[in-house]
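Hi all, long-time lurker, first post. I run a small reading group and we've been trying to get comfortable going from sequence to structure in the token notation. Rather than ask abstract questions, I figured I'd post a concrete chain and ask someone more experienced to write out its structure so we can walk through it together at our next meeting. Sequence below, copied exactly:
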Amino acid sequence: MKTPLRRLALGTQSILLAWGITLGLAQSPPTAAEKLADLRERAAKGDNFALVDLGMAYVRGDGVPQDPAEAVKWFHKAADQGYALGESNLGAMYAKGEGLPKDPVEAVRWYRKAADQGWAAAESNLGTMYENGEGVPKDPAQAMKWYRKAADSSSLSS
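-- Answer (accepted) --
Happy to help. Here is the structure in token form:
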């Protein structure tokens, strides 16, 4: 139930919003170039989300030329700061050999760093490495351990 004071507050808010729009105070959505510039600015300041997002932009060619080596650079910056998603993505690049030479041992190292933080995608990928014997000896028990961790993980990112 709306009280008279609540109705007044909502009415005032609506008037101010309409007035702001009438005066041209409402902003149009940023352009793709503005979004990319903002992303680069935040990445330059070491923002982990921006570092990984910029890396993903280079993986996909989203607003920038597709460049796996450039993606690796940005993932590495996030990984070096201990950011699990950066570590996991860097592991994936090593596992696939995208943007750098394929190196399953390095892939396992980065997956493990992210998995130790509870990152489900890294836990699952680590399980796959054990299942296939890539970068580690083939070990079905270890594979199952990591798959279970991934299923139980709270990040649910796999």
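A couple of things your group might point at:
Helices lie at 4-22, 32-44, 48-60, 68-80, 84-96, 104-115, 120-132, 140-152.
Residues 27-152 form a domain with the Serine Threonine Protein Phosphatase 5, Tetratricopeptide repeat fold (CATH 1.25.40.10).
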